[in-house]
Specification:
The protein is an alpha/beta fold. The chain has one domain: Metallo-beta-lactamase, Chain A. It has seven helices and 14 strands. It has helices at 38-47, 65-68, 71-74, 86-92, 103-111, 181-194, 213-223; strands at 2-6, 9-13, 18-23, 27-30, 57-59, 81-84, 122-124, 130-131, 134-138, 147-151, 156-160, 163-166, 169-172, 200-203. The strands form three sheets. A seven-stranded mixed β-sheet has the order 1-2-3-4-5-6-7.
Length: 224
């Protein structure tokens, strides 16, 4: 089911993970579910009157099986650039492999066996870059290239897996699924300090917050 969170911001509930469609200057897909979510993603797009080939931009918060899984399948009829952090972009283009020396990297290496690299243009984005109305914030820790995106125009923060939600509160990405939890905490504090206020908070896991998004992030930053 597709749920509108705010003006032009839609939530797609997939297999244990969320993707989002944002009507920015162009229709923008945010993250892309698991390799088994193609049909559900297309159905959610149809619910809001779109087809896959209407997507003109993809914002990727990070490389993980449950965030990049449908990209290759969508590439059959999507002509859109994928924007993501430089480190994770190198993994997505096959220039780099996740490190076996890190527990999360080793997990990514295993899940990469069932993840096809997409035949889409991948454009690395740097901290502070703007894409449409969004500003990109490098927020490493969950992965080295993790990026959050905030738009004042749309009043939304796209937080990826930097945080999770439970009971209306945010928590930091846990050790088992993060490269480095100390870096996660520092990224949360820096994002809370640098990003403008936003109402809607979109994360990969847990329920999106339709109001008080940056307040919840600030509260978490004070705890970590």
């Amino acid at each position: 089911m597709a749920t509108e969170l705010g003006d032009g911001v839609w939530h797609f509930e997939l297999r244990g993970v969320s993707a989002f469609l944002v009507f920015d200057d162009v229709p923008t897909l945010v993250d892309a579910g698991t390799p088994w979510d193609e049909n559900a993603l297309r159905e959610h797009l149809a619910e809001i009157g779109l087809k896959a080939d209407d997507i003109e931009r993809i914002l990727l918060t990070h490389y993980d099986l449950d965030h990049v899984g449908t990209l290759d399948a969508l590439a059959t009829d999507v002509d859109a650039t994928v924007h993501t952090g430089p480190y994770d972009a190198e993994i997505l283009t096959g220039q780099r492999s996740p490190p076996l020396s890190n527990h999360k990297g080793a997990f990514q290496r295993v899940t990469g066996l069932v993840t096809s690299l997409p035949s889409l243009e991948i454009e690395p984005i740097d901290d502070g870059d703007t894409i449409g109305s969004f500003t990109a914030y490098h927020t490493p820790g969950h992965t080295p290239g993790h990026v959050a995106y905030v738009s004042s125009d749309l009043d939304v923060g796209l937080l990826g897996d930097l945080v999770t939600e439970s009971g209306g509160a945010l928590s930091p990405s846990e050790w088992v699924m993060s490269y480095d939890t100390g870096t996660v905490s520092e990224s949360i504090r820096q994002l809370a300090d640098r990003a403008p206020p936003f109402e809607v908070a979109c994360m990969g896991h847990g329920s999106p917050l339709v109001s008080g998004g940056s307040d919840a992030l600030d509260a978490l930053a004070e705890r970590v």
